[in-house]
Amino acid sequence: MVKILHAADFHLDSPFLNLTPEQARSRRGEARQSVLRLARFANAEHVDLVLLAGDLFDGLNLYRETAETLAEALAEVEGRVFIAPGNHDPYDPQGPYGTVAWPENVHIFKHRTMEAVELPELDCVVYGAAFTEPEEHESPLRGFRAPEDGRTHILVLHGDVDGGRRYRPIPRGELAESGLTYAALGHVHRFSGIQKLWRTWWAYPGCPEGRGFDECGPHGVILGTADPSGCDLRFVSFARRKYEILRLNVTGRVPETALLDAVEGAGTASDVYRVIFTGETAAGGVDLERVRRAAADRFYQLELRDETRMAEDLWQHAGEDSLRGLFLKELLRRRGQASGPEEEQRIEQAARFGLSALESRDL
Ligand SMILES: [Mn+2]
């Protein structure tokens, strides 16, 4: 039985979206730290093999210290480490995989064709291949078949199970016929679930940290055991910060109270939140600055959006014999002829600005 930890798509030195430049810099530092955290976690779990399925670096023009930090962190791993470079960090003799002094326990796959590393002490063979260019159109699994010899056969590979041809297509049929015990894949940024095709288990762990609102929810790594008779694997949440999008209907509620109630006890201080207010509000809409003052310290970063509609009863003043009535009547007419939701939204905005202006003049 082999104990494994499978991770991928660190994308170290990513630009990080939706953060201030200082926060982005600090997050790049955290990302490097998280590799050290991963190494220590592997040791605490007595892992034999750490399988890193590519895109560890976001690009090859990375900060040199990032690759060195990764090498130092991986040197702490008591088990063996296997790296299969991906489309963002293809193997290049002049690049970080070729030039940094990687510790002895780290094996980096360097070729686009399949290579096998035998580990007799574990009764195990680890296979892998690298991207050597930003695109690879061939599957190294074509015609591949691991022998049925009572050993555990593990693959580490960056590629695309259900995608197009550009980033190394991995046909499901080839996985099913591979005879592999486990295929530790990388490329897809969201945990795939632990999958099985015929006798071969496979999974994408996703990236261990979300990097933007397109990578919301839990992120982590895969931990467990592999054995010729099967695998016992589970997802372990590992992200230090989560990205979340919260839609909050504030009809009849004070927006900052609604927000504080919604996250009460949720431990959001490390998380990046986008809060979208919906529902109906008074003419002025949501006072986002006031919400920010009341709630910003509950989050690492808080982004606020007002997508509320003006309360329907405000439009009822459209019948009045007053400047406000005439103004609303004209906007109602235009709203009736609006070409789509975008124009309706603009008319809504116009009504809000107009009404606040008129109200403050006390007509
Ligand atoms: Mn990729």
Keywords:
alpha/beta; Purple Acid Phosphatase, chain A, domain 2; six-stranded mixed sheet; binds manganese (II) ion; 2 domains; single chain; elongated; 363 residues
Helix/strand layout:
Blueprint: E1 2-7, H1 21-44, E2 49-52, H2 64-75, E3 80-83, H3 96-99, E4 106-108, E5 115-119, E6 124-128, E7 152-158, H4 172-176, E8 182-186, E9 195-197, E10 200-203, E11 220-227, E12 230-237, E13 243-249, H5 255-263, E14 272-278, E15 280-281, H6 288-295, E16 301-306, E17 309-310, H7 312-315, H8 323-336, H9 341-360
Parallel strand pairs: 1-2, 2-3, 3-4, 6-7, 7-8, 8-10, 13-14, 14-16, 15-17
Antiparallel strand pairs: 1-11, 5-6, 9-10, 11-12
Helix pairs in contact: 1-2, 5-6, 8-9
The structure holds manganese (II) ion.
Explain the overall architecture.
The chain has 2 domains: 2-237, Purple Acid Phosphatase, chain A, domain 2, CATH 3.60.21.10; 243-360, no CATH class. It is 28% helix and 24% strand. The chain is built from 9 helices and 17 strands. It has helices at 21-44, 64-75, 96-99, 172-176, 255-263, 288-295, 312-315, 323-336, 341-360; strands at residues 2-7, 49-52, 80-83, 106-108, 115-119, 124-128, 152-158, 182-186, 195-197, 200-203, 220-227, 230-237, 243-249, 272-278, 280-281, 301-306, 309-310. Strands 4-3-2-1-11-12 form a 6-stranded mixed sheet, covered by helices on one side. Strand 7 (152-158), helix 4 (172-176) and strand 8 (182-186) form a beta-alpha-beta unit. Helix 8 (323-336) packs antiparallel against helix 9 (341-360). The longest helix has 24 residues, at 21-44. It binds manganese (II) ion (MN).
